[in-house]
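Re: [ENG-882] Designed sequences occasionally contain unexpected residues at chain ends

Forwarding the minimal case from QA. Structure tokens:
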């Protein structure tokens, strides 16, 4: 995951001195918020004279097209536009002509659906997890699920996050597969930028957000009652394309899990049996490893370390052992790699 340092989060330091220090510690991007202020491009000009770190520009303005020429002249590498502030959305379509990589920035309460109109032309989504253009906010954990949903809807698009990113949030975002995290107060106001940057990239010992913030909900899962037919089982696994199905009772209590591997091994041992004689009870793993919805990602990693077997999906249950979701450890690993 790349780190973009939000320069204007520290107004007490000379901007050239700040970027020189950021260069020393090899930050990936310099994030600059343009709150409808053309003077920003003078700062960019000064930065360009001193350093070659790519610029990550965030335009927060009702008429972003007035900055298109400045963006081109400054050869901005990344630029995104705050969706909610744009008066005429046609200007967002016109931005596709820019030579920069372009993205759409949205607030926490804005539906992900708005990206659909720009998905063929835009490169990334910037999730604003605090108030756009303001420093020092607290990350809103509702965005964990939104990030996961966006990555499923648009797997080829990059995901950026800005707001409240610190040594706890950054590793968590990395586990979710976020491509770039913008850090303001935590990084550029710190006494030692290098130390803070290292903690953002490597701190995997304090992932205390609960599993419920990351899991797939019940409505996204293959769930069957206790008496499915073999055909129904196969169809359910095939439709959801997750490689397994959960079995629950009438009270939604988890009874077990059936995986592709369980079915394959059973059939290989019983090749002479017709499908009508397959005993589904022998297919169900009645004692899968589970994780409580209130447990943290750190707790999950400890569970994995204590069991010497490969686990793709964890059923997530509540305090009464009712199935409430599932967590893909493979997806977390891909995000962390």
């Amino acid at each position: 995951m790349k780190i973009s340092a939000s320069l204007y989060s520290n107004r007490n330091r000379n901007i050239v001195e700040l970027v020189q220090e950021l260069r020393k510690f090899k930050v990936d991007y310099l994030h600059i918020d343009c709150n409808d202020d053309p003077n920003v491009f003078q700062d960019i000009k000064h930065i360009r004279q001193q350093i070659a770190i790519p610029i990550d520009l965030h335009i927060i303005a009702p008429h972003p097209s007035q900055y298109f020429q400045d963006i081109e002249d400054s050869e901005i590498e990344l630029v995104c536009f705050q969706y909610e502030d744009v008066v005429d959305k046609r200007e967002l379509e016109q931005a596709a002509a820019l030579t920069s990589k372009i993205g759409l920035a949205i607030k926490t309460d804005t539906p992900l659906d708005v990206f659909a109109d720009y998905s063929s032309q835009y490169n990334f989504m910037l999730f604003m997890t605090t108030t756009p253009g303001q420093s020092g906010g607290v990350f809103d954990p509702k965005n964990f699920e939104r990030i996961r949903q966006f990555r499923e809807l648009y797997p080829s698009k990059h995901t950026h996050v800005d707001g409240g990113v610190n040594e706890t949030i950054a590793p968590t975002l990395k586990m979710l597969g976020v491509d770039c995290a913008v850090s303001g107060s935590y990084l550029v106001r710190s006494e030692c930028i290098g130390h803070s940057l290292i903690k953002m990239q490597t701190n995997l010992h304090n992932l205390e957000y609960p599993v419920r913030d990351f899991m797939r909900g019940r409505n996204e899962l293959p769930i069957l009652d206790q008496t499915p037919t073999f055909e129904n089982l196969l169809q359910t696994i095939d439709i959801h394309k997750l490689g397994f199905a959960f079995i629950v009772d009438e009270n939604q209590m988890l009874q077990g899990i059936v995986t592709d591997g369980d079915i394959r091994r059973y059939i290989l041992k019983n090749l002479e049996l017709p499908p009508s004689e397959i005993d589904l009870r022998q297919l169900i793993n009645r004692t899968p490893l589970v994780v409580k919805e209130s447990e943290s990602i750190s707790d999950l990693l400890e569970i994995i370390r204590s069991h010497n077997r490969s686990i793709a999906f964890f059923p997530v249950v509540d305090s009464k052992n009712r199935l409430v979701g599932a967590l893909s450890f493979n997806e977390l690993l891909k995000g962390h790699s």
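QA comment: On inspection the terminal residues look reasonable. Residues 142-153 form the longest helix (12 residues). Proposing we downgrade this to a documentation issue.
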